[in-house]
Amino acid sequence: MSIEVFFLILALIVCLYGIFSIVNRSRVETEIIWFLLSAYLSIPWFMRNRILPWYAVLGYFVPLVLLAAGFYLLWKKNRELASAGAGKACRNVILLGCQVGSLAFKYREDKAYEYMMMNPECTVICSGGKGGDEACSEAEGYVRDLINRGIAEARLVKEDQSTTTVENLRNSLPLIKEKEEPIGIITQCYHLTRSYMIAKKAGYENPAMISAYSVPVHQPNYMLRELAAIIQGKIQGTL
Question: N or C: less crowded end of the chain, CB within 10 Å?
Fold first, then answer.
């Protein structure tokens, strides 16, 4: 197989993934990037009969190498944070909010329930405000569901003013007395690194990242969003 055919097949796969993301309404708003990447990957096919100077070929591959390196480093850091947080028993845990009723909401709630059953002394701060298309605040949704699953109301704290991860972590910290102890933060595996960086910026001394499940086929989309958000945050000085 020639390199031109390889890149054309790769371009088609990326294009199909972009279509899949739109059909599944991933709500990530990165779908256009997959189509742009697909077009970029197809360039070798359309240029296959031309002889290009070495610097043009090098210039073509540099962005692809940087993108692949970014994905790998983010994946590696997420795994490291998940591994480090898996064995910690935290007295205080923050459950980051997301769209009520979404798969991410369910998986974060499941992880919080599992963690509370394994650590009966811990308190969970359910953080998340009410979006325009939500019937209740994300915090209220978490509290209601966890109580229905048998968790004592006394172990749950509601923080229902936040609308972003930055606000989740900033508004939850004053509700915790033992700030010097490890503080658990529950979110999806792809979201661990940025949440950790935000927590450190917000003054958390020892954030322990607790990874909730995420459907593997959706992760490239969310990883792309996280990578873009981290780069943006670094440029703006917010991370």
Answer: N
The Cα-based distances of 105 to 70, 97, 193 in angstroms read: 27, 7, 19
Residue 25, pLDDT > 90, answer no
Average pLDDT over residues 155-183: 92
Residue 114 shares a structural domain with residue 165: yes
Looking at the structure, tell me whether residues 43 and 131 fall in a common domain: no
Please compute Rg for the chain using Cα positions: 21
Give dist(CA 203, CA 190) in Å, integer.
Answer: 22
As a whole number of angstroms, the distance between CA 15 and CA 238 comes to 33
How many domains does the chain contain in total?
2
Both tokens assigned to 2 = 């020639």
Q: What is the pTM of this model?
A: 0.88
- Beta carbons of 154 and 119 less than 8 angstroms apart: no
**47 and 87 in a common domain:** no
Residue with more model confidence, 52 or 107? 107
- The predicted-structure confidence for 68-91, as pLDDT tens digits, reads as follows 999 999 999 999 999 998 878 899
Domain that holds residue 230: 83-236
In tens, the pLDDT along 217-236 reads: 888 989 999 999 999 998 98
Give the residue among 189, 184, 207, 97 at the shortest CA–CA distance from 145.
97
Under 8 Å between Cβ of 192 and 217: no
Bridge-based pairing state of the strands 183-188 and 207-212: parallel
Residues 110 and 226 placed together within one structural domain of the fold: yes
Give yes or no for a contact between 192 and 84, defined as CB atoms under 8 angstroms apart. Answer: no
In this predicted structure, what is the pLDDT of residue 106? 94
